[in-house]
Design a protein that fits this description.
It contains six helices and six strands. By secondary structure, it is α+β, with helices and mostly antiparallel strands.
């Protein structure tokens, strides 16, 4: 899990450190653009394509949920945003990554936890297995400590601290933009 976290954060750091990416975030903020999660996923897809010599990845790969989740949500499939494997890692074991974007930190965090529930219910299949699962959120906030407190409070209040996110929680400001990136 430690290697997976380091790999994910390395990917995200490089992705968010691009001057062009940061300029686009500033435009999104200045123009008060909403609902840019799909754009974010497309940008990340483009970024992953540039790394194809070192990684294998899929976008919106259809996976089967366990029976409990399928019955509860009335769904016959789950589609994570990204499935990524570093070349050289065990075959068929991938990081499952869900992206969330919301200007409101509270809404972003809430939606990240809902996605975490979804990813945790993915059933192993013969071609692909979950090596680890991650939620990545982009929200408008400059106060890392405040975000950290909101995340822990939400986990404690809504899930009784069920998710052990302390060790792998990463929150970083995205350059000179009003946005921060959260990963757990």
């Amino acid at each position: 899990m430690k290697r997976d976290h380091a790999f994910l954060i390395e990917l995200l750091d490089t992705f968010t450190s691009s001057r062009v990416f940061r300029q686009k975030l500033k435009i999104i903020d200045k123009q008060n653009i909403r609902g840019w999660e799909t754009w974010l996923q497309i940008e990340f897809s483009y970024y992953l394509t540039e790394l194809e010599d070192n990684i294998e990845w899929y976008r919106e790969l259809r996976c089967l949920p366990d029976k409990r989740y399928a019955a509860m949500k009335n769904r016959c499939s789950i589609i994570p945003d990204f499935v990524v494997r570093k070349k050289g890692w065990s075959q068929n074991y991938f990081l499952f990554i869900e992206f969330k974007q919301n200007a409101s930190p509270s809404d972003c965090i809430k939606n990240m936890f809902l996605d975490l529930q979804k990813i945790l219910s993915i059933k192993k299949n013969e071609n692909i297995d979950v090596r680890s699962y991650w939620c990545v959120g982009f929200t408008k906030s400059k106060n890392i400590q405040e975000l950290k407190e909101k995340i822990h409070k939400y986990n404690d209040d809504c899930y009784n601290g069920y998710y052990d996110i302390k060790q792998y929680l990463t929150i970083k400001r995205i350059g000179r933009t009003p946005y921060s990136m959260i990963a757990f």
